[in-house]
Amino acid sequence: MWNFHRDPQEVYYRAVQESKNRIQAEKDAAFQRRLTEKRRIARLPNCPKCGEKCEYNLPQCESCEQELVWAEYLIGIPGDENRLHQQLSLDERKYHKRRTKRREIRRRFAARESRWASQRLIVFIVLLVIAVIGFAMLWPKMKLYLPDISFD
Ligand SMILES: [Zn+2]
Questions:
Q1: CA 68 to ligand 1 centroid distance, Å
Q2: What is the per-residue pLDDT across 86-98, written as a single tens digit (0 to 9) for each?
Q3: Are 18 and 31 in contact (CB under 8 A)?
């Protein structure tokens, strides 16, 4: 009723188009979700016995029923606990080392930036001084071309 003055063909066409767009958007979202899930599964650790992917903290493998032990994200079989914890602290040390390195690089970069900024300032001041001196030296000559205004 509210659109009886519009072309019914056009209204129909628009409705069809909108529903097509909605279906396509839903398809895209579903595809994205599947992709995210696929990537998550690809990153899961493998069972040490059969090599299947295992969800974190599962007490046993879902495909071969091997009992599992975990140290955070590291997987093993009972008896591996010590090795896993050694590996974990090794990983942590490596991570801290990398983080320190990244911070050092950032700090050096910031220092270089501020050095550049002060160098730019010095160049600007030097050019300004040269311009002022040049202007003062040329002033007597420039006066010749200016209109002669006297107030007396
Ligand atoms: Zn398994």
A1: 9
A2: 999 999 999 999 9
A3: no
- pLDDT for position 4: 60
pLDDT tens digits for 108-121? 999 999 999 999 99
Beta bridge mates, 60 = 67
- Decide: 77 and 66 in contact? Cβ < 8 Å: yes
Q: How far is CA 142 from CA 48, 132, 133, in A?
A: 89, 14, 14
Distance 119 CA to ligand 1 centre (A): 63
Model pTM score: 0.55
Distance 67 CA to ligand 1 centre (A): 9
The closest of 80, 52, 53, 49 to 66, measured between CA atoms, is 49
